[in-house]
Amino acid sequence: MYDLIASNYSSIFPLEAATVRFIEYYLKTINAKKILDIGCAAGDLALALCQRGYFVSGIDLNKKMIDIAKAKAGKHNASVSFKTQNMLELDANEKFDCVLCLGNTLPHVSSWTELEKCITIINRLLNKNGIFIFQILNYDKIVRDASVQFPKKENGEYVFSRNYTNITEDKITFEIDFFDKIRGTHHTDSTELLPVKRTRVLELLQADGFIDSQVFSDYEKNTAGRDDFYNVFVSRKR
Question: Where is the Methyltransferase domain (predicted)?
């Protein structure tokens, strides 16, 4: 489904300076050098960190996204390794100081079993005291309210909207709608997501040996609350 928005991803979801500041704050606390960005999309975050002197690898399941990221890296002469890969198939032989997984990527697993497997893989990828930073929507609120309001994104080239339907404790249907004003084309697509609730994911992190877990409502380090739009997690490998 992400083929529909790959070419416009960086415009629809621009990288915010606060996101980079937040991540770099934690990278500096452990003197991190090597970073893996899971679900790197069009590569903007990975490239921004590379420009700040970090060694960065980025993976995404969508080949079109990775092709765009590689083109950006070539244009800016940036030494970032971008690869089309499933996060459940990562090779734990390579080690990182920090693993990032932003953009609501984790809920794209199909079950809690897969999520548990993913967290275990990430734990194995991290060096001792390594940090795992991930961001998801506040699914506690979404499931409780059985709804969520997404802002429409529009400019002179496109109209992009998204919606959640069929909201249950175990599955959510994620729908996107993209109208290309230049070409006059209109496309829709959907996929299923796992509603990853805060308490459950914290339990999985603890069970896998992660410690010092914190949850924020944004990249300004505000404490997560009941009605926030999304949650940002920071956990450290024991």
Answer: 35-130
